[in-house]
Design a protein that fits this description.
This protein has strands at residues 8-11, 25-32, 38-44, 50-55, 60-62. It is mostly beta strands and 66 residues long. The chain has a five-stranded antiparallel beta sheet with strand order 4-3-2-1-5, with no helix packed on it. A hairpin with a 5-residue loop joins strand 2 and strand 3. Pfam families: DUF4926.
Length: 66
């Protein structure tokens, strides 16, 4: 498993049907292992509305903490 719950991640591509843009930052809420490795990621917009999407590991990358 590449990522863990509560990891901060960045989207690697646009998802226009969900109004998510490449580079948007979210947090992993749930990590699924079966039947396939997927991650439920929560995004919060500038108006403080949240949206959850289930994404594949190759659609996100971990944001390194500084």
């Amino acid at each position: 498993m590449k990522f863990s719950e509560q990891d901060v991640v960045r989207v690697k591509k646009d998802i226009p049907e969900e109004c998510i843009k490449k580079g948007d930052i979210g947090s992993i809420v749930v990590a699924f292992r079966k039947p396939d490795e997927t991650y439920e990621v929560e995004f919060v917009d500038k108006d403080n509305y949240s949206k959850q999407l289930v994404l594949l590991p190759d659609e996100i990358e971990k944001v390194e903490e500084t």
